[in-house]
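Researcher: Next sequence.
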Amino acid sequence: MLSYCVVQDQIMAAWSPTSEKDWARRFGFVAVPLFGKQRSSNQPGNHFVLLDGQRSSLTFSRGDAQSLLKSRRPIEWAWSANVRGSILVDEVTTNIYGVNWDQPSDVREGREADTLLKGIEVAPLLGAETSIARAMDVFRSIRQEVRDYGGRDLDAIHAFTVLLMLVDSIRQGVMPDNVRMLGGVLTELTRQGRVSIEPGTLSSRVAALPIRDLADQLLSGNGPYSLDPYLLMRHASGTLFQEAHVRLAEPLQTQPKLFILLRDEVPRPRGRAQSDIHYTPTSLARFLTEQAVTEFRRLNPNAGSVKVLDPACGSGVFLVEAVRELESTGLAMKITGMDSSPISVAMTRSSVSSALRDSVAAVESTPPDIIKGDSLMQEWGEPDIILMNPPFLPWRRIDSKTRNAIEGSLADLFHGHADTAIAFIGKAAHTLRPGAVMATVLPAALLGSESAAKLRLSLSGPDWRMVVLGRVRGYGYFKDATVEPAFVVISRTAERVCCIRTLMAESDALDRAIRAVRTEPFDKNAEGPGWELGVSSALNADDWNPRPARAKELLRQFSQDAVVRPVLDLFDVHLGIRTGDKHVFVVPLSLVQQMDPTERRFFRPLADTIKRGRIRSPQFLFYPYDDRKLTITSEAQLKSLVPVFYSARLAPNKSNLQEQGRLQGRHWWELARPHLSWHTFGGPRLVSTSFAGREAFAFDEAGEYAVRQGNAWIWKGSRDLNTEEWFVYLAVLNSPIFEAVLDYFCPQMQGGQYEVAKRFLKSVPLPDVTLLAQRKKKQLGEYGRAIHQGKRVPLYSLSASAAAAFGVTLQDFITAFPLMPSARLEMDFEQLASKWKRETAVFSSDAQKMDHPSIRSVLRMGKAAIPLILRELENRPAWWFGVLQTLTGSDPVPPNKKGLLDESAAAWVAWGKENGYEV
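Model: Next structure:
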């Protein structure tokens, strides 16, 4: 595999530090002019933005570096453009200077570009107010006052857009001093051609709002920098409006007045607003857009124009990036967006219109067409490029009208329980003509799910070419994500090109991976910390998931080891019982307790719920079978043998059960699929939930539980397992490294679990415990017993022991099969906590303990550390009270309970439960 460093050395051969293009090529940036058509810098030198990602984007200035530093303009530009800092290169000396806007006095100088750039990237943000944060403070006030003037959230978005343009006009000296009210400002900005809000959009009451009174607040705020709204809109409009959309989903809070002319009554807090946020990070939208445009131009070298569509446009981030990417191509642009939300339409219209007005494109483009409506029910025309992050709603949460729209959009590609994301991608596939391109974000589960099978089969066919296929591990890249994301770039062409670029990255490494795609040869593999680029020659329609190259090497090693065998060589994995009507046949403990012992023998505890490797059995299943046959064969027996159940559940539902036609001649009180061929009781077995991950496997030692929503793992080896060996399997299956193996082989579902059906387990490796050395069994057996007894086990040691059972070191294992972010976080926390306790045991000062490097690392984990700390309260809780107070800003311990460890710990646990943490 090609090293990232090797490629960087090759690029260094032709490197000029004064060239923004060389910086872009070397580090994987996108270089764009800092100022567009509507503004010149009024400063000597040449100025650009090097766009990369959430941490590394920066301004780049070439000229008299010392003069520019003294002026502080580059730093203020960086702050206004919402990038991390500035690089300045002196044209004469070629010295390089790096500075972060929140540390303006710390100017780093040198000739090593890598070192200076890293200094900007890794420097912590020192709590200073960002330009986005200032804008959002003002937006909250606007929203509050618009409501008081009888307006809606849509009016607040219009008012916010007007304020941004107003402040820019004031800075440029083109706004008359006597224009103060929102309606008058809008009229003047419309005359200047700076806004695209239709006349009459605002009511007369809202138009009377004195918007100019907020100009100083937006310009200066409480920070050291004066905001340039032009740069904020040019380089961060997507982030700006996405953040505004997030605020609209929050309850309206009372806060101090910022206007001096408004009435004095206090606004009432409002309930939670409707949210339809599609929050696509700008760096990913930019990457997908440039890949789609590059592919379109490759397929259409003589095109003179291009039609771009985003059918789920949200705040317009994709379309703004399309304008930016296309302005240097000479293509006339026709930009179309669709969204069902009027707020999204307003945001997109504002951001895209602003981008087009500021575009330096040589060819005049038509005004954008931003349409309000349900995209699945609209005609999409004939776009050349479709860019989107479609909404994701699973089938079970969709109303009948939308289900019909999904079926209509997919047509012959409809299969199973399709979700809305599948429908958008399917409609795009039906819409695109030869030579057109689609770039889309999608849930990672769709890369292998059954409901997307027909869609994948079609797009894997000869009429399509996959250009880029990527998957992000974890949920941290997208704000408030509930599914892991993936993305694809696909063109409609029968042309066969050498390869597909695959990309795999952890959430915190995707931006680095995107930069690497720009610097690496397209047909070469490469890897770096948290990311891997691969090359594939063909698509497997059954499973699009990109695979780590090192995992394939380790699997080959396993295949040659007699100890490691496929799961299905060791276990028969059986799908659980299907009841046919769970509301009838599944009953609570309270009903079973009303039965006499004779009736109770027909009810089995269910293994539906497994938490932390243990079965939790709050429900029971009616199971009238024994010795693989039905034991209640007449209704008279039914009334006699199970009278409580008959009266409470069967009799009231008899007609429905008889009419279902589900049993094909069997008795109406039978289960739909009792699985008599294997579902016997009395022998040990492992059980799992249908969708499993770490801690979702349990040991049913006495074989007493009925398996319904899950799988039973029945040993089929040459000899029976002893109890210690069963516990070895329990430990391995619940280890973080086995979860990483499931991630490789099994499709991931919403919520992060994996579908562990038999068809996905056929190649999953597992040690044959009967061939393991006793020393390897001993520790794992102890860990499995502890899990079975509800005790916590150290994840790092568990993982190391499980890897040893596979015959490899833990490091080799996790290099090939990277751990899930949640497991890695918990293991890191575990080690930090252990080191902290060990090294501060003799400290008497709480301040000393809180200043330890380990605890600072825990604090950097943020809120993700809170549930882990809450679980630690059972073990020396006094260590953690100060940490919890720092992380949460709360202290739920009553004054009269201070100093009482058990009571204080109980108060924190109660706080955790109230705030939704599982403890």
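Model: Residues 464 and 492 are 5 Å apart (CA to CA). Residues 153-172 form the longest helix (20 residues).
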